[in-house]
Amino acid sequence: MIELLKLCGFSEQEIESELPRVGKAFNKLGITVEDIERGKQRLTKYYDVELKGVRKALRLIVRELVDALLVRDEGMKKVIYGFMAPGFDLLSSALVTKSRDVCSIHHSWAFQIVVGCIFGKIEPILEEAERKWLKAGMVAHCANLKTLVGPIVLGLYPKPDLLVTTGFLCETSPKTVDLFHELYDIPVWYVDACQDRTCGEYPEPSNRVASSTAKSLERLAERIQEVVGFEITNDMLLEVQDAKGKLNEAFGRIRGLVESSTPLPLSPAHENIWMCLNVLALSIDGITEATEAVDTLYEELQERVAKGLGVVEKEAPRVLATLPMGQTDPRLEYLACEVGIAIVATDRNLEVSIKETSEDPYMKFGIGMQLGAMHMPPAMRIPLLIEGCKKLNIDGVLDRFHVGCRAVAGDALLIENAINKELGIPVLLLEWENFDPRVYKHEEYKRRLEIFKTMMIVNRQS
Amino acid sequence: MTKVVILNRNDEICASIVKHTGAEHRRLANKVMEEALQQAGLSFDEISYVIATGYGRITVPFADRQITELTCHARGVSHYAPNVGLAIDVGGQDAKGLKMNCGKLLDFVMSDKCAAGTGRFLELIAASLNLKLDDLGKLSLKSTSKASISSTCTVFARQEVVSRISEGVPLEDILAGIHDAIASRVARMVERLKIEPDVVFTGGVAKNIGVVKSLETKLGCKVLVPEEPLLSGAIGAALLGKEITLKALAQGKPVQKGRRSLNESTLF
C-alpha cells in the first residue's frame, strides 16, 4: 500500500498520517493485497508515474475518493452528489471551500480512475448496477450510469442529501436519478435548460440558452443553500471561476505542447486524469494544487521535448480521436502507442473561441457551456473536427463509436462520411465504450489499429 | 490456413502452398517455406525479399518485413482486377470488406467477433451433415426451394439445420439457406463501404459457388473470383516485397533484410 501511495504522489509524512484512512476506504472498496499489487503494475505500465506532475495529479484524485468514501464515518453533516452535471463542479468547489461540514462529490470521476484505471476492478460495480435496473445486453445502457448506480446501491458511496443531474449531455441520467428518488427516497434536483439553439446561431453561443442555463443553475444554488444552510455568493463563484481559469490555462499549455511536439511526449491515457482534475469538486486550495501539478508536468514535458524523447516514434501518424479517453480503462490509448499511433488530441478539447463573456458567474457558465465540440450538434461538431484536423496536421481520425450513448452514437457515421469527403484522410470507426472495460478486445483492436496505421502512412506518402 | 507464394520477376507464380495452420506457427512457416522452395527449384538465398502477413505474421522468423493482411489483400486483388472498388474476403477466421482505389486501401470493415459468416461456420455445418466442404457449393445449386436459416449464430444455426433435417427438408435446400444466410451477413457488413461494381471475392469461402451466387443476388452485381482465391493475400505480399526491392535498387540503397535463417526454432 505504501508503495502504491508513493506512486500516487503521497509524501512519506502524508502516508504516515493518511494510511489508516486510505486503508479504511480501500477496505470498503474490497481492495485486496493482490489488487494493490495489480494497481502498482498498472500505474507503472499505463501512466508516466516517474513524472512528478502525474503523481501530484493522481494524489488529488485518490484523496478525493478516500474523502468521499469516508464522509459519513467522519461525521460530515451534508453530502451532495452531482452526476453528469456540468456547472455542479462550480457550486461544489464553492461549497467545500466555505465549509468543512459539507462533502460535495462531482460525478464518479475519481472512482472511475482509481477503481477502474488503477485497480482494474470496475466490473463488479458495473455488474451490480446491471443486477438492478441498468440491464446489460442489446439495450446497451452506458456504463457511466452504472458507475453512479453501483457505488450507491452497494453502499460504498453514502446516500446523499441531494442528488443533482442535468439533461445537458446525457438524457438517461435524469431517468436514473428519478429511479434513485423512487426506490431509495433520495432527494433529487434537475438542472434543466434547453441546449438547442436556433439554426444559424452556431457557432456563436446563444444568449437565450445561456440565460436559461444560468437561471436553472441559480435555482440549483438556492436549493443547495436550503440543504447546507449557508449562502453561495456570486463572489465565491467568481473566485472559483478565477482559480479554474488558471487551471484551464495550465491545461492549455500542456495541450499545446503535446499537440505541437514530435514525438508525442506523453501517452494519451493521461488525458482522463486532466479531465478528472478539471471537474473534481476541489476547494480553491485544491484547484491551486491541481494547477501546480499541471505546471510541474508542463516543465517536465518541456524537458522531454527538448531531449527529443517520446512515447511513440517520431514519424508516427498523428491522430485525432473522438470522445474523451477511456475513463475506466487506459488500455486502448496504451495500445495505440504500442502500435505506433500518436493520438495528439480528442474532440473534447476542440471548442469555438469567442471573446464574449459575462461578469455574472452563472451567465459566464451558460456561455462557456455552449462552446465545446462535445456540446455541439453534428452540424457544428463536424466542422470543428475538420478544422481541428487541419490545424493539427492530422493523418487520420479515430472515430470512436459509443453504442450506448444516444447523444453521440449517431454522430460517428456522419463524422466518418464528412472527414472522408472533406479531408480524404483515413477514418477508423471503432465500436467502444469509454466507461466499460469489458468492451476492450485486444486482438480485434490491435488488428484494426495496425491497418489504420498502414492506411495513414500510405495516404501520407501519396 | 498458411499460404506461401513465390513470384518471379515477371510476377508469375513459381510456387504456391496452402497448409492447415497448427499450433506452432514458426515450425509450420519454416516447413511450408522449404516446400515452396523445393517446388520452385530455388534455394532460400535466391529469394530477394520475404514478406509475412496475416494473423501469424510476427511468428515468421525469417521474414524481412511484416505487413498487415488488408494491405496485402488490397494489393493482391488489384493485381487480379486493377480497377476493382470493393473486395470481400471470407476466410476461416473472419470476413472482411475492403474499399479500394487502384490497389490503395481506402476503408475497411471486419467481422472478427463471431464465427457466423466465416469459413469456420461452413466447416462446422459440413461436419454436422457429414459432407465434404468442397461439395457444399455444387450441391446447393440443385436447390429448388431454399430453407430459411434465421439464426446469425453458428451454434444456433447448427441446431436449426438439425431441425430442418428432422422436418424432412432436402439437403440442397438447407445448404442453399445456409449460403444465403452467410451472403446476407457479408452483404450487410460491406454495405457501409458503398458497394460499387466490380466486386472481387477472395478467401476460402469464395471457392463455394453457392455462396458466390447468393452474394451476387444480395449485392446485385457480378462477383469475380480469382482462380485461386486463397492466395490473394500471399500474392499481394509477394508483389509488395518486389516493389520494396525494386524501389531500394532504383534509389541505389541496400535492400533492408531481416535475419535470414530457415533453421527451425520453436515457440513452445
Characterize the structure shown.
The complex is a heterodimer of chains A (462) and B (268). With 462 residues, chain A is α/β, with parallel strands linked by helices. Chain A contains 18 helices and 8 strands. In chain A, strands 2-1-3-4 form a 4-stranded parallel sheet, sandwiched between helices. In chain A, strand 1, helix 5 and strand 2 form a beta-alpha-beta unit. The longest helix of chain A is centred in the middle third of the chain and has 27 residues. The termini of chain A are far apart. The mean pLDDT of chain A is 91. In chain B, helix 2 crosses helix 8, helix 3 runs parallel beside helix 5 and helix 6 crosses helix 7. Chain B has 2 domains: 90 residues, 2-Layer Sandwich (Nucleotidyltransferase, domain 5), CATH 3.30.420; 142 residues, ATPase, nucleotide binding domain (Nucleotidyltransferase, domain 5, 2-Layer Sandwich). In chain B, the strands form 3 sheets. Chain B has a 5-stranded mixed sheet, sandwiched between helices. In chain B, strands 1-2 form a two-stranded antiparallel ribbon. A two-stranded parallel sheet of chain B has the order 3-4. By secondary structure, chain B is α/β, with parallel strands linked by helices. Chain B is globular, with a radius of gyration of 20 Å. The interface between A and B is medium-sized, with 15 and 13 residues.
Give unreliable regions of chain B as ranges. none
Beta content of chain A: 5-15%
Mean pLDDT of chain A equals 91
Biggest interface, chains and residue tallies: A-B, 15 and 13 residues
**Lateral strand order in the biggest sheet of chain B:** 7-6-5-8-9
Helix content of chain B: 25-40%
Radius of gyration of chain A: 21 Å
| Structural class estimated from helices and strands of chain B | alpha/beta
CATH H-level name of the largest domain in chain B... which superfamily? ATPase, nucleotide binding domain
Q: How many independent structural domains of chain B? A: 2
Query: What global shape of chain B is seen?
Result: globular
User: Taking all residues together, what is the mean pLDDT of chain B?
Assistant: 85
Spatial order of the strands forming the largest sheet of chain A: 2-1-3-4
CATH class of the largest domain in chain B: Alpha Beta
Cα gyration radius of chain B (Å)? 20 Å
Most strands sheet of chain A: 4 strands, parallel
Main pleated sheet of chain B: 5 strands, mixed
Discrete helix count of chain A: 18
